[in-house]
Amino acid sequence: MARQFDHMADLEAFVTIVDKGTISAAAVALGTTPSVLSRAVARLEARLGVQLMRRTTRRLSVTEAGNLYLEQARNAFGLIADAERAIQGQGGELSGKVRISVPTTYGHYRLPAMLRPFIERHPQVSVELSVSNRNVDLVAEGYDLAIRLGELADSGLAAKRLGDEAVCLVASPDYLRRAGTPETLDELAGHACLPFIMPSTGRQAPWLLHVDGKEIDWQAPARLRVADDVLGVVSLAEQGLGICQTYHFVAADRLVAGRLVEVLPGLRGRSRPFSLIYPPHRRLSAAVRALIDALPGGC
């Protein structure tokens, strides 16, 4: 007896090609070659007796019949995914894989303590962590979750606020002995400031200050700027190269140990939010949902 659904691999190829936009991108996502996927779509079209896609050297488009079939195929795959999620964790441990992107500050100083209880509770869940200051494309790059800094743009992504983190100005005792301790914002402008260049914009990130009851975004004058890894400004400050602004949770241990000293504490009072984001319409696995629930939300 012939198998009724022996074309499921071909159907997955068709859906992935449409989702990724090109046959080449779909081949990368599925770990195969463009020619294999082209043959898969051709078999599917022969089986159905209709053309699903129009393919030229420059572009790919889906026919009316292809769009109808695509919608039903996605619904079918969604039902299968729902069935898998319904039984995950029943009669056995939660399993699966979660891919998450996180900025360096949070990845080094906040997330490890949050992840440890989750990892210990769910040993069969594999977590792939990308620690960088690059804003990944969750859908195109296959990430389940990402942690983002700052107020979120209206991107259509679902978000969970993890908390607001206070910032402070710090310098090494050695630098302050040599250059003196600034007492006002005007004096700060004459010091060696260590600002950061934001990867998303290529512009210098302003320092968030609270001056005379007002919140100001101050552009620190500098000869030395840091790009790509924001933790670099802290390392430079610790080595006596100047003053930087960083999160208090990053500087805390160094302040206690005396390797850094807070500068102009009267200008404190500002903070930046961190949020967990994920595609709202993607069917999330039980493992992904469990990690979302495990990460504490903040105000």
What does this protein look like?
- The protein folds into 3 domains: 80 residues, Arc Repressor Mutant, subunit A (Orthogonal Bundle), CATH 1.10.10.10; 90 residues, Periplasmic binding protein-like II (D-Maltodextrin-Binding Protein, domain 2, 3-Layer(aba) Sandwich), CATH 3.40.190; 108 residues, D-Maltodextrin-Binding Protein, domain 2, CATH 3.40.190.290.
- The strands form 4 sheets. Strands 3, 4, 5, 6, 11, 12 and 13 form a 7-stranded mixed beta sheet that branches. The chain has a two-stranded antiparallel sheet with strand order 1-2.
- It is α/β, with parallel strands linked by helices.
What is the secondary structure topology, with strand pairs?
Blueprint: H1 8-20, H2 23-30, H3 34-48, E1 53-55, E2 60-62, H4 64-87, E3 96-102, H5 104-109, H6 111-121, E4 125-131, H7 138-141, E5 145-149, E6 158-171, H8 173-179, H9 185-188, E7 196-197, E8 207-211, E9 214-218, E10 226-227, H10 231-238, E11 244-247, H11 248-257, E12 261-263, E13 271-278, H12 286-294
Parallel strand pairs: 3-4, 3-5, 7-10
Antiparallel strand pairs: 1-2, 5-13, 6-11, 6-12, 6-13, 8-9
Give a nutshell description of this structure.
This protein has helices at 8-20, 23-30, 34-48, 64-87, 104-109, 111-121, 138-141, 173-179, 185-188, 231-238, 248-257, 286-294; strands at 53-55, 60-62, 96-102, 125-131, 145-149, 158-171, 196-197, 207-211, 214-218, 226-227, 244-247, 261-263, 271-278. With 299 residues, it is of the alpha/beta class.
